[in-house]
Each structure stands twice: as C-alpha cells, then as structure tokens.
C-alpha cells in the first residue's frame, strides 16, 4: 500500500524521555518504519538502518562503533537536548549557547528540498533558542531559525563515507510539522530516496463542483498528477477538458479502470453507486478515495474493507471537512485542555429553505437527509469523541417539502460506552438556527454560533459588489467558556487557523508516498456509516434505541 521500502530504526533510551515520547509514538504510526528501543548500543548493528541518540548520553565508549556503522552506510541522528556538551566531530557542528524560551520562526534553507514537499513555507515552534555552529564546510543546513536578523542552523545533515549523520537542536518534538520533517529525515539517513514519480490520479464522475475541486487538488499538490476523468455525460467530459486541458477522458468505467497511468481513482459519483464502483476499481489493484459517505450500509463497508485488504490497496473517504477552520480550532482547544474532558457535543446545520432539486434530496440515491451533511458532522463527532459507540436514537419530520423524498428534518443522538453523548441535527425547516457547535467539558464549554456574512468586494465597474456567502461555508463565531479558579467563568476567543482547501490531497500524497498517517482513517468513515445506518433504522421504527456494530478493527 505504501510505496516506500521499510527501514529499521534503533532508538537508544537509557531512561524515559518525556519530551521525545510523542515523536517516537508518531514514528510507530508510520507503516514502513520498524522502531526498536534499547537501553544501550548493542554490539551488532547490521540489522538497523539508522541509530537515534541524544548527546546527554554517554557515547564515549560507543563512538567508534557508531562511526564505523555510519562510514559503512548507516545513518545516525542525534538530538541536541539543551546541552552544551561537545558533539562528536563527525557531525561537523557544535552547539551554540542556550538562549531564552521563545517562539522560533523555522524555515528550510532550500525550499525545494525533498523534505519540504507539501509542508508550509515557515513553521513557528515554541522552545529554547539553541543554534548549531558549523565546524565543517560540508555540513548542510536543512532548517534554520531567524534570530536577531540572522539565520541560525537548527537542523543539519552531513554525508560521512557511505553513510549519513544529522542532528537537531529544536525541542518541539510534539509539533506535527517537525515530526514529519524528522521522520522524512530518518528515511534519508537510511540511504533511501523518496518516491519521485507522482501518483497518477483519475476522477470517476465529474460534477461541476466536486470534480473540479479534486482536479485542482491533484494539480496543486506536489506528488499528484491528474491523468484522466471518466463520466457518462459527454458534456461533463467537455467541461473537464476545458478545466484541465490535455486530460484524458473516458465514457466507460471499465476502460477507465484499466488505464495504465492511473494509480489512484477518486470516486465522485452519487452515494448509491459508491460501493459498486469502488469495488470495481480496487479489483484491478488501484487505490481508491471515495466521496462521502463511504457507503450506505455496513454490508457495503464490509465488502469494501475486504477488497482493499485482498488487493493491498489504499481506501479512504474524502473527509475534507477535517481541515475546516472551526473544527481545527475546537480540536486544538480540546488538546490544550481548555474545557477539560469533553462529555457532550451538539451540532446543527440548516435553516428554513427549500432543499436542492437534484440527487442530494432524493433518499434512494443519497441515503437520506443525514447522509449528506451528516457524513461530515458525524465524522467530526467520532473524531472528537473517539470512544466506541453504544447506541443510536434518531427521529425525523416530513411536514413541508413534499416535492423531494428526503425528510425535512432529522436528529441523531449517539451514546458512547462510558456515557459520553453527542447529537446531530439537519433541518430544512428551522426558521431560527441552533448553534453549529455546543460542547460541554468538565472544565468549560465551547459554543460556535452560525453567522450570515455579507461581503463586499471592490469592482471597478460597479464600485462595490455585494456577495452573499452561504452560512455553511462561513467560520462560526467560536467562544470558549472556561471555569476560572476564582469561581467565575471567563470567555476566550480561540485562534482560528486559515483553511487550505487542498490539505486533504496533500495528506493523501504524504500517506501514499511517505507513509505518514492519514488524517481521516478508514475506520472512522466505517463508523460514520454504522451510525447513519443505525439512525435510519431508528427513524423507521419511530425513534427506537438501536445498537451499533462498532467493533475495533
């Protein structure tokens, strides 16, 4: 499934290092990395590609063996953990003075370096200032930090004989960007080259919106290349060729599936065809990303998982809302412990408006009201409350919009083992909106109120032009309510990150090309379908309590 060959990493841990624990945990999640931990350096190192140490350990007696290991083709990474100890001359650098705790702006010396693929131009890391001074001309700076109008090396690399050494003085080992950089560096130290050939992407079903989004995602993401589009409608194929000149087009899914230059297919058809088409594509050995929802029931998800395992291919669901700004802000607030232990969550989408007139509003094709937006909102719920689901209760109303088959309103209540609860409501007959987010924790709460925003853009012909932006695409007003030791409740406006619309595609490339973890794992998408299926049963039966087949994979 992952294109990289396995590497074996030996970590020398004489004692537990809390600061590095999160990084080692991250390494363990990467399929092609085999991690071993030992209290001291073994006599025989031939089973390992890279050795990881820190300079606070006693390397005096083992330096000769490590040097021989490197010169023979091995890799050695050294963590400079706030120490002024002299480093082995092998590294070609020595630590500078230890400075104050601060926020460091860290950048790649060469923005085109293979380690920099799909990473931000600059990363802000909190920690102690601790630069590395070069003592050898061939020591290469990979990362530098801005410090008082000068560039200071904080991650260096050097080739020694047939092998490689590297060291870093950065202390933010839990930061996701630094974790990705260091894991990629270990692969380089093992003497492996990262995959340079891009993944060929095919899109099956070219709707004007989602098809173009996937095409742009492939086009804008290093490591991905849009190769082909398939659709039964010739007009849609003409549109695809207009959007992406030179792209191959197919009217037959069978012929498209056999395209030699396509490695991964994005299935962007209506939900009732997801399982059938995904199975067809995977059966010929190609990776698949499926639009949400993954399928309409558990029988289909079981078949999909079985085929993916049988063929050894990647299967995931396009849960692009994992990168929505409000979700990321809420997730970070929970990680920071701002409201304690989350035990209750409500989410809402809707208003009083006529449903759309195409397949999204036709239950036999879409799965029903909750299968549309609910596939995103329930995914948020299972991500923020990762416990096993115990029961689901759901109700629906059909009172106003009789020209479509979807219900006017659906409500899903989820209870988890251990007692935590969540609720999702989608209503097209709500003249007043509930908050998009309502979270309760043991130390506080988070509320995210919907807002209708009208923006004004400058237009040279019409002076100012008014643009109404759908509420569903607006970042809600987020407020954290936190219990203060004084007994009062204080309000905090959390930082809202910018949204990168192609982070899903970037994460996909990182996963398939480098083995980095997928942000929305298949197991979560399967759980979403299980909840939606149980909710559908409950609605038909008048709001009964339904169990959920939520077995850990």
Low-confidence stretches: none
CATH superfamily of the largest domain: Dihydrodipicolinate Reductase, domain 2
Q: How would you classify the helix and strand content by structural class?
A: alpha/beta
Binned strand content: 25-35%
The total beta strand count reads 26
The N- to C-terminal Cα distance equals 18 Å
Tally of separate helices:
14
> What global shape is seen?
globular
Number of domain modules: 3
Radius of gyration: 26 Å
Query: Which percent range fits the helix content?
Result: 25-40%
- Outline the biggest β-sheet: 9 strands, mixed
Enumerate the strands of the largest sheet in spatial order, edge to edge or round the barrel. 2-1-3-4-9-8-7-5-6
Q: State the CATH topology of the largest domain.
A: Dihydrodipicolinate Reductase, domain 2
Supply the CATH architecture of the largest domain: 2-Layer Sandwich
CATH C-level class of the largest domain: Alpha Beta
Mean pLDDT: 92
Describe this structure in words.
This protein has 553 residues and is of the alpha/beta class. It has helices at residues 18-28, 63-71, 176-189, 210-220, 234-243, 253-257, 274-282, 298-311, 325-335, 363-366, 369-372, 374-384, 503-514, 522-540; strands spanning 7-12, 33-38, 50-54, 75-79, 93-108, 122-134, 140-146, 151-160, 163-168, 199-204, 224-230, 248-250, 264-267, 287-290, 315-317, 342-350, 389-397, 409-416, 421-427, 437-441, 444-449, 454-459, 463-468, 477-483, 489-492, 546-547. It folds into three domains: 7-189, Rossmann fold; 199-318, NAD(P)-binding Rossmann-like Domain (Rossmann fold); 321-547, Dihydrodipicolinate Reductase, domain 2, CATH 3.30.360. Strands 2-1-3-4-9-8-7-5-6 form a nine-stranded mixed sheet. Helix 7 packs parallel to helix 8 (298-311) and helix 12 packs across helix 14.
């Amino acid at each position: 499934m992952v294109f990289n060959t396995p590497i074996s990493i030996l970590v020398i841990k004489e004692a537990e290092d809390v600061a590095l624990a999160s990084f080692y945990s991250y390494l363990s999640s990467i399929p092609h990395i085999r991690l071993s931990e030992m209290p001291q350096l073994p006599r025989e190192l031939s089973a390992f590609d890279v050795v990881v140490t820190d300079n606070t350990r006693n390397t005096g007696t083992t330096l000769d063996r490590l040097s021989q290991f490197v010169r023979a083709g091995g890799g050695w990474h050294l963590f400079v953990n706030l120490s002024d100890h002299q480093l082995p001359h092998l590294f070609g650098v020595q630590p500078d003075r230890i400075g104050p705790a601060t926020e460091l702006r860290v950048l790649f010396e060469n923005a085109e370096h293979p380690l920099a693929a799909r990473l931000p131009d600059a990363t802000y890391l909190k920690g102690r200032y601790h630069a590395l001074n070069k003592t050898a001309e061939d020591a290469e700076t990979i990362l530098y930090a801005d410090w008082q109008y000068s560039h200071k090396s904080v991650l260096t690399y050097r080739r020694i004989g047939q092998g490689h050494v590297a060291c870093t003085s950065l202390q933010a080992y839990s930061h996701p960007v630094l974790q990705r950089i260091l894991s990629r560096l270990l692969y380089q130290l093992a003497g492996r080259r990262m995959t340079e050939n891009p993944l060929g992407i095919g899109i099956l079903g070219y709707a004007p919106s989602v098809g173009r989004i996937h095409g742009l995602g492939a086009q804008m993401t290093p490591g991905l290349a849009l190769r082909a589009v398939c659709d039964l409608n010739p007009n849609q194929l003409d549109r695809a060729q207009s959007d992406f000149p030179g792209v191959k087009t197919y009217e037959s899914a069978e012929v498209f599936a056999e395209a030699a230059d396509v490695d991964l297919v994005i299935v962007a058809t209506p939900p009732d065809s997801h399982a059938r088409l995904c199975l067809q594509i995977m059966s010929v050995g190609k990776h698949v990303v499926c639009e949400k929802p993954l399928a309409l029931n558990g029988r289909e998800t079981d078949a999909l998982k079985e085929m993916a395992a049988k063929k050894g291919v990647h299967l995931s669901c396009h849960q692009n809302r994992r990168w929505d700004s409000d979700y990321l802000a809420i997730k970070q607030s929970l990680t920071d412990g701002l409201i304690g232990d989350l035990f209750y969550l409500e989410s809402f989408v809707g208003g009083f408006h006529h449903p759309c007139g195409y397949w999204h509003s036709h239950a036999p094709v879409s799965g029903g009201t909750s299968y549309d937006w609910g596939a995103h909102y329930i995914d948020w719920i299972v991500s923020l409350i990762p416990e096993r689901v115990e029961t689901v209760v759901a109700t629906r109303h059909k009172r106003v919009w009789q020209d479509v088959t979807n219900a006017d309103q659906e409500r899903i209540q989820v209870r988890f083992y251990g007692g935590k609860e969540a609720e999702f409501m989608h209503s097209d007959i709500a003249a007043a909106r509930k908050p998009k987010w309502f979270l309760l924790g043991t130390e506080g709460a988070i509320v995210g109120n919907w807002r209708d925003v009208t923006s004004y853009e400058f237009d040279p012909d019409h002076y100012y032009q008014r643009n109404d932006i759908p509420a569903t695409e607006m970042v809600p007003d987020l407020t954290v309510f936190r219990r203060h030791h004084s007994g009062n409740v204080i309000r905090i406006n959390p930082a809202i990150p910018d949204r990168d619309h192609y982070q899903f595609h970037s994460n996909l490339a990182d996963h398939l090309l480098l083995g980095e973890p997928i942000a929305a794992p298949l197991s979560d998408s399967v759980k979403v379908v299980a909840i939606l299926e149980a909710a559908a049963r409950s609605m038909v039966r008048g709001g009964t309590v339904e169990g959920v087949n939520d077995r850990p994979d």
